[in-house]
Write a structure and sequence with these properties.
With about 210 residues, the protein is α/β, with parallel strands linked by helices. It contains ten helices and seven strands. The protein is about 50% helix and about 15% strand. Helix 4 packs parallel to helix 5 and helix 6 crosses helix 8 (about 160-175). The structure holds adenosine monophosphate.
Length: about 210
């Protein structure tokens, strides 16, 4: 399975990616996670990305494209992968298309997890991450268990201001790439409202019907 997970910030991409990669046994490639790791490690790439991420801006294509393409060329991605948060611009989608064509591989699906803008801010601002397990919680909808609650942290870009900026970028830069995948009959739209299990089931059954 070679798939892309796309959606507005806070749609549940991270949560669903975690489940889907287990189900399909494929590597999870999150450019957001890669960039956060680079920022944490203080690498040159991390230093370039930090300011953009804090503001909720997209990191320039020149930084992200090389990083993502290099990752999918690694051997563990040979029989499949899940791209989470990449591509996010037309230039990224174009670069990915070229790289996949050169490798003679094809995408199986692009899954759009759709959530209305009004719900996004509430979801993002209440989001908390467990730095030990990487699990994602929400203070109201999916509170962490008592033994985890004390150690959860909030992402630097999960403030209301950065969230609004990310949402704006999603509409101006990322949504316009969807018709490209739709024209190749790869796009699957899934309603992102509901419990995590319900949404996982929706995605898996949509992928099964695509394969059948
Ligand atoms: P995410 O974890 O996917 O929500 O990404 C967090 C932040 O990392 C984004 O708001 C961007 O600043 C940056 N980022 C992640 N993926 C990309 C990408 N494909 N292109 C540009 N910036 C990205």
């Amino acid at each position: 399975m070679r798939m892309i997970l796309v959606g507005p910030p806070g749609a549940g991409k991270g949560t669903q990616a975690e489940r889907l990669v287990k189900y399909y046994g494929i590597p999870h490639i999150s450019t957001g996670d890669m960039l956060r790791a680079a920022v944490g490690a203080g690498t040159e790439l991390g230093k370039q990305a930090d300011g953009f991420m804090k503001r909720g801006d997209l990191v320039p294509d020149a930084v992200v494209i090389g990083m993502a393409i290099e990752r999918i060329q690694q051997t563990d991605c040979r029989s499949g992968f899940m791209l989470d948060g990449f591509p996010r611009t037309r230039a990224q989608a174009g670069a990915l298309d070229v790289a996949l064509t050169q490798a003679s591989v094809q995408l199986d699906a692009v899954v759009l997890i759709d959530v209305a803008d009004e719900r996004i801010v509430e979801r993002i601002v209440g989001r908390r991450n467990d730095p030990v397990t990487g699990k994602i919680y929400h203070v109201r909808y999916n509170p962490p268990p008592a033994d985890v609650a004390a150690r959860v942290v909030q992402r630097k870009d999960d403030t209301e201001e950065a969230c609004r900026a990310r949402l704006e970028k999603y509409h101006s830069e990322t949504r316009p790439i969807l018709p490209f995948y739709d024209s190749k009959q790869l796009l699957i739209r899934v309603d992102g409202e509901g419990g995590p299990d319900e949404i996982t089931n929706r995605i898996i059954s949509a992928l099964k019907s695509l394969a059948g």
